[in-house]
Structures are given as structure tokens and as C-alpha cells.
Design goal:
Blueprint (H helix, E strand, L loop, with lengths): L5 E4 L13 E3 L17 E4 L2 E4 L13 H15 L3 H8 L4 H11 L8 E4 L5 H10 L5 E5 L2 H5 L8 E4 L12 E7 L8 H11 E12 L5 H22 L5 H14 L3 H10 L2 E9 L3 E8 L2
Parallel strand pairs: 2-7, 5-6, 5-8, 6-7, 8-9
Antiparallel strand pairs: 1-10, 3-4, 9-11, 10-11
Helix pairs in contact: 2-7, 3-4, 6-9, 7-8
Bound molecules: S-adenosylmethionine (SAM).
């Protein structure tokens, strides 16, 4: 993998327990958050730079409008959670956990750091983070889907909170590292989410956001589309427990294709106050956005 790896600067991206033994905590105090405007266009221009709000325009093949997106996506994740890890293994050809760990290391995750994993899902990133920091109690996972949280396999000690990237229900600061694995396309408002990421980090804290981005060449993109939009959903139909699983994986591809360009995602990170914003690309499609909060 390393030979395919590029770093792009912004200016010109334990064994798991059988059942979750993590602590689920729902906090009721109001976060220092923003009020997302559901009618906001996917990209708006502020001070001459591109700031991304909604990650992509509404995908009306699946739901009617931006207002309906959150409920539709939430419903899909809840219903299909039990299938997630199995299908992810097919999509990533079994390399997903190793790759997530490698990206956390690349972003500078070290022993003893306190980590907030946003869009934790079934815990694929959080598990690797726990291995690297050495103590599962240093990891907090946040996700809005009770279904995904309920299917998470986490080492004892990981703290889990139901919440959204755009309004994280935690007080300011306290984390050295913030990770997000393949959830950025699902947030309601990227600029708000990045504002929250900045708020959650201690000075000098690091961000690591993993995503899939379209391939540059036409042929590469056609192959990726065939794999993600048709082959993986077809396999999902054969092995999934829930009938909606295949549709959700087809939807993933449509969000990848429709998502705001990486340069705009990076501008939005800068606009939220992050410095040293850069992007790592593997195999032309696996993007990791890296950024720091100033010390
Ligand atoms: C494709 S899964 C990724 C799970 C995991 N991070 C991984 O690396 O496999 C996307 C997750 O994002 C969550 N999600 C959806 N909307 C979100 C939001 N607004 N804020 C945070 N997470 C969100 C979903 O519930 C789901 O668990």
C-alpha cells in the first residue's frame, strides 16, 4: 500500500469482545453547537473560499429532500447494522481493520492519547485506536444510530455516546485525537461538524478523517463504480440478513460520487480553524484528511 501513498497539501484529504461491554452514556447538557440550515446548498462561498455545508445534494432516488435525508439514513443504518461488518469485509477484501490502523498511525495516534471517534458505527476504527493508545478507557465513540452502537464489538472500557458530528454532546476539549471513518458523507453539515471537531480537541490535537473519493481516471472510476455500486450490493443481497443492506451499499457509492470535492473539504477544515491540512491518497481512492489544531 505504501508505494501508492501520496500526501497532498491543502493549498494548491484485543481482541474484540463478542458483545459490546462498552459503557453507553447519553449526556443531556447542550453542546456548544451550530444550527444547521437544511436548505443550505452543498457548497457555499464565504470569504472567497469554498465551504461545504451539506456534503452532497439530495439523492432523490432514495429520499425526497434534504430534510428527509437524516431520517432515511438513520433508518437504513439502524436496520442494516447487523450486516455491516460482514459486508465491509467484502468491500475491503478483509483489509479494512489493518488499513484503519495504518491511517491512525499516519495521522500521529500514539500511546496514551485520548481519542474521540465520531461516526463510530460498529467500532472498526475505535477498536484499532484502542490497540494503539493502550487503554480502551481513553476512547470515546459517538454515533447517532442505536442500531450500529448495539452491533458494536468493543473492548471493555470504551465509552459510547449517542450523538451527531454536527452537535457533539460533550464539553469543550479533552481529546488529543479525533477520528472519523467513512461517515463524513452522512453528516448534515460538514462546516458545523468540523467546528465541533475543533472544539473537542486540545491545543495541538490531531484529526484523521477517512473517506473514499472517486478515482481520477475514467477507467479507474468505472471499475470502482462497478465494484461499489453493483458487485458489492449484489454480494450483499446474497449474504445480508436485512433486505435493505444491498440498497445501503449502493447508496454509499452514490454519496461517494456526489460528495463535495476533496479540495473543498480541505478548505472547510481550514475555515474551521485547522492548520497543516493535508490529504493522503492510497490506490487513488482511499482518502485520509489530516489536520491539526494549533498548539
Ligand atoms: C459507514 S458507517 C462507518 C462506521 C465506522 N466508522 C467504520 O469505519 O466502519 C457510517 C456511520 O456514520 C454514522 N453517522 C450517520 N450520520 C452521522 C452524523 N451526522 N454524525 C456522526 N455519525 C453519523 C452512521 O450511524 C454510521 O454508524
Amino acid at each position: 500500500m505504501a508505494s501508492h501513498c501520496q500526501l497532498i497539501g491543502c493549498k494548491p484529504a484485543f481482541a474484540a469482545a463478542r458483545r459490546p461491554r462498552a459503557r453507553l452514556i447519553q449526556l443531556s447538557f447542550a453542546p456548544c453547537s451550530y444550527t444547521p440550515d437544511p436548505n443550505m446548498p452543498s457548497v457555499s462561498h464565504e470569504s472567497g473560499s469554498d465551504i461545504v455545508h451539506a456534503p452532497h445534494p439530495p439523492l432523490t432516488e432514495y429520499y425526497d429532500s434534504e430534510e428527509d435525508r437524516r431520517d432515511w439514513v438513520g433508518d437504513q443504518f439502524n436496520k442494516t447494522a447487523a450486516d455491516y461488518d460482514r459486508i465491509e469485509k467484502i468491500l475491503g477484501l478483509g483489509t479494512g481493520s489493518i488499513y484503519r490502523k495504518k491511517m491512525l498511525e499516519l495521522a500521529g495516534l500514539q500511546h496514551g492519547m485520548k481519542v474521540l471517534d465520531v461516526g463510530m458505527g460498529t467500532g472498526l476504527v475505535a477498536r484499532q485506536a484502542a490497540l494503539l493508545v493502550g487503554d480502551p478507557a481513553n476512547i470515546t465513540g459517538v454515533d447517532p444510530s442505536p442500531g450500529m452502537i448495539g452491533s458494536a464489538k468493543l473492548p471493555a472500557g470504551v465509552r459510547v455516546i449517542e450523538g451527531r458530528a454536527e452537535s457533539i454532546p460533550l464539553p469543550d476539549g479533552g481529546y488529543d485525537f479525533l477520528s472519523m471513518g467513512y461517515a463524513l458523507r452522512h453528516v448534515a453539515n460538514m462546516a458545523d461538524a468540523f467546528g465541533e471537531f475543533h472544539r473537542m480537541l486540545n491545543p495541538g490535537g490531531k484529526v484523521c478523517i477517512m473517506e473514499i473519493t472517486p478515482a481520477q481516471g475514467k477507467l479507474g472510476n468505472a471499475l470502482l463504480k462497478g465494484y461499489c455500486k453493483y458487485l458489492v450490493p449484489a454480494l450483499a443481497k446474497l449474504v445480508a440478513k436485512d433486505k435493505d443492506t444491498a440498497q445501503l451499499w449502493r447508496y454509499y457509492w452514490d454519496t461517494i460520487e456526489a460528495c463535495a470535492e476533496p479540495t473543498k473539504v480541505m478548505s472547510t477544515l481550514e475555515s474551521a480553524g485547522f492548520v497543516n491540512v493535508r490529504r493522503n491518497v492510497d490506490l487513488g481512492i482511499f482518502t485520509t484528511y489530516l489536520a491539526d489544531k494549533a498548539a
